[in-house]
Amino acid sequence: MYFSAGSLSAFKYFQENGSELSCLVVDSGYSFTHIVPYCKEKKMSEGICRINVGGKLLTNHLKELISYRQLHVMDETHVMNQVKEDVCYVSQDFYKDMEIAQLKGEANTLMRDYVLPDFSTIKKGFCKPQEEMVFSGKYKTSEQILRLANERFAVPEILFHPSDIGIQEMGIPEAIVHSVQSLPEEMHPHFYKNIVLTGGNSLLPGFRDRVYAEVRSLTPSEYDVSVTLPENPITYSWEGGKLLSENDDFMDMVVTRDDYEENGHCICEDKFDI
């Protein structure tokens, strides 16, 4: 069987929204972000777009910021990935949040203190409640603490402006519009109305709202824009595969071991169009 994760996500979306003929799958994962348009479950290759920004890049950038400003954590990839998932969010107004992050003491409502794990008494890092934060002086406990302010939103901002760290590529909203613009004009409204977010990065708080706001600002006012975030964007494509396996036509889509032993790789080329 020859199916990409994006194709399975599109299959599930079409099953859930039977009246729709087109969708745009935005899969922002560990290494890359792929934007793939589908029409009647067939991918439209002229609109496929890849951005070389993913969760790994965000984690590495957070490691560099923390190592430069507070504590050497370049060897703690797993821990810093957890920090990113626990405290980072996508800003809806970057410059306003940056002004708040520069304030001192309790006026800085964005500041968070993150307790790092020591793997003996603290197995997993956690964010201190705001009422327990110490704004002047040091903590009396022996916990190792990271203080995060603008890092919380400056790191995920790379998904929207990769040029901030010298990667000369489009951000996700711009790439979505670029992908749709490369398709026939009469199809544009259908794709803007059916944008699906999948992959781990879409779990960042504020991600869906920011994508919607920026795509809305870049598209003509007469088009409806709808951005869907599934309940679990990480397993969404797997759920599509599960649905596909229950389909009556499933056996027509696969090459069995007996078929392969009889015909060799040629049958894969014929059946999967590769």
How many strands, which pairing sense, and closed or not: the largest β-sheet? 6 strands, mixed
Shape: globular
Oligomer: single chain
User: Could you say which structural class the secondary elements and strand pairing correspond to?
Assistant: alpha+beta
Helix count, DSSP H or I runs of 4 or more residues? 12
What distance separates the N and C termini? 12 Å
Total E-strand runs: 9
Using the CA coordinates, give the radius of gyration: 22 Å
Taken as a percent bin, the fraction of beta residues is 5-15%
Provide mean pLDDT, rounded: 89
Uncertain stretches: none
Short note summarizing the structure:
The protein is α+β, with helices and mostly antiparallel strands.
Q: What does the model show?
A:
This protein is of the alpha+beta class. The chain contains twelve helices and nine strands. Helix 2 (55-69) packs across helix 3 and helix 6 (172-181) packs across helix 8. The chain starts with a helix and ends with a helix.
